[in-house]
Specification:
Length: 196
């Protein structure tokens, strides 16, 4: 099965696009969702994160998101160390998941597909973009976060110009109708290209 990496900056709408592919019958793996599940269920990850960030990193019901975000999004070295703990486990989980899927291709949706070099394991890559003011507005509404918090998170991701160079396909996600049409077009392109 071919692997299609789907990425985009925070608020670009990559999960919305992933769901559109899912509606077309394409198996979709949302790396951030699986990473959150693993962060709360894996003793290995929990122990490593507590060793790195201290006991406050976890609450009785799981990871202390606010505390951890405040530490790692203001410290690139800590962010890299946390990613080095979580990402290999997510990659392992993804590889097991792929083996159970049926179809011509599957989508791996990941926020930092290029930053963590996992795009190298993909046969194609799709970048979802949107103007930064739209992205910020979407995240303010979705996460009830401040503009400053969002801008800090954006600075820890590559900009769209840098990602575009490595992308095979691009979806400009400004209005849903156009995005839906583009997803249908890309799905047909992938099905034809892969079956050749």
């Amino acid at each position: 099965m071919k692997i299609v990496g789907l990425t985009g900056g925070i608020g670009s709408g990559k999960t919305t696009v992933a769901n559109m592919f899912k509606e077309l019958g394409v198996p979709v793996y949302i790396a951030d969702v699986e990473a959150k599940k693993l962060t709360n269920s894996s003793k290995y990850i929990k122990n490593k994160i507590i060793a790195l960030l201290g006991d406050k990193a976890y609450l009785p019901d799981g990871i202390n998101k606010k505390y951890v975000a405040k530490l790692i999004f203001n410290n690139k070295k800590l962010l890299e160390k946390v990613n080095q703990i979580i990402h290999p486990k997510v990659a392992e989980h993804f590889n097991k998941w792929v083996k159970k899927q049926k179809g011509v291709y599957c989508i791996k949706e990941a926020a930092i597909l290029f930053e963590n070099r996992s795009y190298k394991d993909c046969d194609y890559t799709i970048l979802v973009t949107a103007p930064s003011e739209i992205r910020i507005q979407r995240v303010v509404e979705r996460d009830n976060a401040s503009v400053k918090e969002i801008e800090v998170r954006m600075k820890n991701q590559w900009n769209d110009e840098k990602k575009t160079v490595l992308s095979d396909l691009i979806i400009h996600n400004i209005d849903l109708q156009t995005t839906q049409e583009k997803v249908i077009e890309i799905n047909l392109f992938l099905l034809k290209s892969i079956k050749k």
